[in-house]
Amino acid sequence: MKLQVPFIQLPLQFDATRLAAEMDALGPDPWREHPNKYPGNFSLPLIAVDGDPDNDEVAGPMRPTAWLERCS
Asked: Fewest beta carbons less than 10 Å away: which of 3, 31, 53, 66?
């Protein structure tokens, strides 16, 4: 697959303590196991089609999920 546009490198700066606190506040429930059950590979859907974290489609109106809206 060839991308139609090049990748853009964004500056990687964040407050690790704040990020850890936000992830802890969400708890374990929203985290999804990898479909192939790779050990230690989990994801947290923050943006999804129509904001539905259970929707794995990639086409449609992308909106924040409830998990993202709970973060500051």
From this structure: 3
CB of 65 closer than 8 Å to CB of 51: yes
Q: What is the pTM of this model?
A: 0.67
**Whole-number Cα distances in Å, 21 to 1, 3, 15:** 37, 35, 10
State how far the Cα of 1 lies from the Cα of 30, in Å rounded to an integer: 31
Q: What is the largest CA-CA distance in the chain?
A: 38
As a dihedral over the C-alpha atoms of residue 5, residue 7, residue 13, residue 15, rounded to 10 degrees, the angle is 80
Residue 41's SS3 state is coil
- pLDDT of 55: 86
| Percentage of residues of the chain with pLDDT beyond 70 | 99
61 close to 47: Cβ distance less than 8 angstroms: no
